[in-house]
Design brief:
Length: 353
């Protein structure tokens, strides 16, 4: 079920006449049968967008389509959605089975069939053996699966997940996100997954939508957005450790950072902002881009050099290099920059050049 948002806008009006534009003219297509990650910093309008898609919130303006159908006036219970929130809100006095069956209460389905359906969904999410337990007898990850089963039992057209993993510890979070990916693949259900965790979104999404202050910044496959960010915000938001940012300039057909000549670069002389991914440095014999290493961090197979920032000695930047170089603190290193790991932005607007 393809979801189309047309100029979707939500303005909250608080008592003191103060307006918050939570979602600003969102104009996107969410592809059918895929997992789309809705990503952005806290307060950028992710939940508001999700709740408008679910029907729990009314847009101030704009429209929502499920396939060809304009669902904007359709109440939530008739949209065919399954919704999972951050706090799963299971009914504590009911068993797992009863929790999963609950959404079927108002559906005309005979008891046998409903029980069969509940079992089938429970098996799918891996809690089929826990049907007689109460929520408090389950781990966080198991509770979250019950919530997902409950959202899936009515065979919704669309599955909406709002930060479904944020109550879980790191290990369980990793495991449950793989699980969600598997469930999504097996059911083929169009799924929107909201998170502010870029790594989480990058790892499980077929497509990501990056938002900032209610406005879409970029849509695409995670690796495409990572490799070709539209602007400085997107470049900085994706990637751990984050991209290194430098003040630079184009001068006489060369790209410069301070006195270092980074590479040839056609274009009129101007100041620019340069982003270089930590994995974008290559150690070489000769280069004007050189510095003395301050710290060396080795974690697993990565060696990270921490180097004084050429624009500001009180700051540092990070370069991930091959451990084989055996670099030590105090060593002078010289770099070439891998062109596909570098992005150049307009200094004023932050748009990619
Ligand atoms: N009911 C409301 N009344 C007024 N303002 C609201 C209301 N709900 C949300 N907002 C504001 O709208 C903006 C977007 O909120 P939203 O909850 O959609 O953000 P979010 O991206 O989900 O953030 P988070 O990652 O923290 O969950 C915020 O500035 C928020 O304060
Ligand atoms: Mg939210």
């Amino acid at each position: 079920m393809e979801i189309t948002l047309k100029n979707l806008t939500k303005v909250f009006q608080s008592k003191k006449e103060e307006e918050t534009v939570a979602v600003d003219n969102l104009d996107i297509k969410i592809p059918s049968g895929q997992l789309t990650g809705l990503l952005g910093p806290s307060g950028c309008g992710k939940s508001t967008t999700l709740y408008m898609i679910s029907g729990l919130l009314r847009p101030t303006s704009g429209e929502i389509y499920f396939g060809e159908e304009n669902v904007t006036p359709v109440p939530p219970e008739e949209r065919g959605i399954g919704l999972v929130f951050q706090n799963y809100a299971l009914y504590p006095h009911m068993t797992v089975r009863q929790n999963i069956l609950f959404p079927l209460e108002n559906v005309k389905m005979d008891r046998e069939e409903a029980l069969e359906k509940a079992q089938e969904i429970a098996d799918l999410v891996g809690i089929g053996h826990l049907m007689n337990r109460k929520p408090k007898q389950l781990s966080g990850g198991q509770q979250q699966r019950v919530a997902i089963a409950r959202a899936l039992v009515k065979s919704p057209r669309v599955l909406l997940l709002d930060e479904p993993l944020s109550n879980l510890d790191a290990r369980l979070r990793l495991q449950t996100r793989e699980e969600i990916k598997r469930i999504q693949r097996e059911t083929g259900i169009t799924t929107i997954f909201v998170t502010h965790d870029q790594e989480e979104a990058m790892s499980i999404s077929d497509e990501i939508v990056v938002m900032r202050e209610g406005v879409t910044q970029q849509i695409g496959a995670p690796q495409v957005v990572y490799n070709k960010p539209n602007n400085l915000f997107v470049a900085k938001f994706l990637g751990t450790p984050p991209i290194n940012i430098f003040d630079g300039r184009i001068e006489n057909g060369r790209l410069m950072i301070g006195e270092a000549n980074i590479m040839k670069f056609e274009g009129k002389d101007r100041e620019v902002t340069i982003g270089i991914r930590p994995e974008g440095f290559k150690m070489v014999e000769r280069s004007s881009f050189q510095a003395d290493v301050e710290f060396v961090e080795t974690i697993g197979r990565d060696t990270t050099l921490i180097i004084p920032h050429p624009n500001d000695e009180s700051k540092t930047f990070r370069a991930i290099v091959d451990a084989d170089y055996g670099v030590e603190p105090g060593d002078t290193v010289k770099f070439n920059v891998k062109p596909h790991k570098m992005h150049i932005f307009d200094k004023e607007t932050g748009e990619v050049l």
